[in-house]
Amino acid sequence: MPVSNLPSFMKWLPVSTTATIGRCEFMCRAPMDGFITGRHRSAKKGASVEFADYRQYLPGDEIKMIDWKVYGRKDRYYVKQSMAETNVRVMICLDCSGSMDYRGDLAAEFEGRRLSKFEYAKYLAAGLTSMFIGQQDGVGLTTFDTRVREFLPAKSSKGQLFNVLRHLDEAEVGGETELAPIFDEVAERIPSRGVVIVISDLLGDTSQLLKAFHHINYRHDELIVLHVMAEEELRFPFDSFMHFKDLEGITELELDPKSIRAEYLDRVEAFVKMLNDGCAGMHADYVPLSTKTPFVKGITEYLARRATGVG
User: For the chain, which end, N or C, has fewer CB atoms within 10 Å of the first or last residue's CB respectively?
Assistant: First the structure.
């Protein structure tokens, strides 16, 4: 299909993204309960040597697992798969609250424009969905602001990629949100073990948010928190008297940034540290991402660190 005839929602998955993220791989750290054969360890015991089926060889599989007799018949590489191999359900939770609409002047440019936090998050969600579907994992999408807006259950079919992209394209920023109840609801709606990926600026009551993350952790789901913030929120580089507006409310202030910079930066540092320490305490991955860093670079660097056991 010519590029000009591609559906509008395909803009969230440009070729540059698939070419780079498509070379990445995600392996779960904990055993999972899957629903079709895949490449993660199963939570089911006692079946690790029982033959189940063949599947096509994928980059990263051990060459010694290739069945050469099958290759001789089909001229394609296949590996034997035991009952202990499974796929995983991945639920991507996308924050659509008003604060995500911030577009800073320091954000990285992509296709001729600077991305808002919300656009940045959409590209992350699309790229990760493509990667997981490519390795036969199931992906679902939850969008939320004041409430859960969409809940798309995880599926591993190729058509699911288009479903997720379509929902991403239709998602718009809303109003104020309280994150903790949202994640409590998501934790209850996920049917079995899986991976929950939160993409949010996490602005809210941090202590309540961490309690909600514990809820996910308690249900034996692997949690990954992609904390998206604008570079201006992290550095507060403003110098002159400015007008500030709350994107989730009606508060507007005229302030001299120099007079509050030190206290602001101290609070941001404490905020990030609390999130990092809280996630570390429950063995969740906390991944701070600035919109100044190109989204493909940010996510591939995280996946590389995770693959090597560093992040």
Answer: N
Specify whether the CB–CB gap between 152 and 169 falls below 8 A.
no
Model pTM score: 0.81
> Dihedral through CA 157, CA 198, CA 123, CA 302, nearest 10?
-100
The C-alpha atoms of residue 229 and residue 202 are separated, in whole angstroms, by 9
Long-range contacts of 269-276 (CB under 8 A, 24+ apart): 271/206, 272/227, 274/206, 274/207, 274/210, 275/202, 275/206, 275/209, 275/210, 275/225, 275/227
Pair of tokens at residue 217: 């952790």
What one-character-per-residue DSSP string does 154-202 give?
A: EE-SHHHHHHHHHHHHH----S---HHHHHHHHHHH--SSEEEEEEE--
CA angle 93, 59, 131 (to 5 degrees): 15
Helix axes 295-307, 117-134, angle to 10 degrees: 50
Q: Which two tokens stand for residue 289?
A: 């991402």
Tokens of 92: 């991507």
Q: Which of 90-99, 231-240, 290-299 has the lowest mean pLDDT?
A: 231-240
Map tokens 């054969």 to a residue.
37
Contact 5, 21 (CB under 8 A): no
Which residues are 152's β-sheet partners? 141
Cβ burial, residue 101 (10 Å; 0-12/13-18/19+): middle
The tens digit of pLDDT for each residue in 1-53 reads 444 567 889 999 999 899 899 889 888 876 555 444 445 554 444 344 455 55
What residue spans define the domains of the chain? 8-19+87-307, 49-82
CATH class of 8-19+87-307: alpha beta
- Residues 192-247 have pLDDT tens digits of 678 999 999 999 899 999 999 999 888 767 999 999 999 999 998 888 666 666 66
